[in-house]
Amino acid sequence: MTKRTAAKYKLDRRMGENVFGRPKSPVNKREYGPGQHGQRRKNKLSDFGTQLRAKQKLKGYYGDLTEKQFKRIYAEAARVKGDTGENLVGFLERRLDAVVYRAKFVPTIWAARQFVNHAHVLVNGKSVNIPSYRVKEGDVIEVRQKSKQLGLIQEAIALTERDVPDYLEVDHSKLTATFVRQPGLADVPYPVIMQPNLVVEFYAKNG
């Protein structure tokens, strides 16, 4: 289901953290970056470096988001009322591929992108194949009838390393999920510490 099978742990190694909480992550055994010089990268980060790292980690967590896409979401988060960092996380979690991943219909965020692209998902009874589609409160997301027998769905449901968050109401017997509300940072079950406030600082200083 994913083009990034070979590279899916690269972010973990670059960050030195198990960003997705996967039991097979290489950083469980070695906590240094990829490449021949990975073990030597232990210099103290500047403020810019710390902010850039926070941005790369948050952006990377959501799969194949481009910088242009991520920056557009940030710009929208900055325009609306409220805390920009909280808004940013909320908007990212409202992406259809993120909801499919959170509902445990697929095992990885990259598989979620492919799953939506291949028209396996309905929103309020209508087919939606755009991963960036932003769901609203009360929207019902479900796996299309023809796709309910796919093996990766049962594989994902059986995963023990992550739970369904309480801003989704999920029925795995029917393969439906209702988006209850936009979450804040504290609601999102990230396996590692995310710092959207540093992402806000990064864009404030670096446009």
TrEMBL record:
What is one process in the GO biological process aspect for this record? translation
Pfam families assigned to the protein according to its UniProt record, in alphabetical order: Ribosomal_S4, S4
The segments labelled Disordered in the record are 17-48
Any stretches that span the bilayer, and where are they?
A: none
Q: Which domain of life is it from?
A: Bacteria
Per its database record, what is this protein's job? One of the primary rRNA binding proteins, it binds directly to 16S rRNA where it nucleates assembly of the body of the 30S subunit. With S5 and S12 plays an important role in translational accuracy.
Name listed for the protein in its UniProt record: Small ribosomal subunit protein uS4
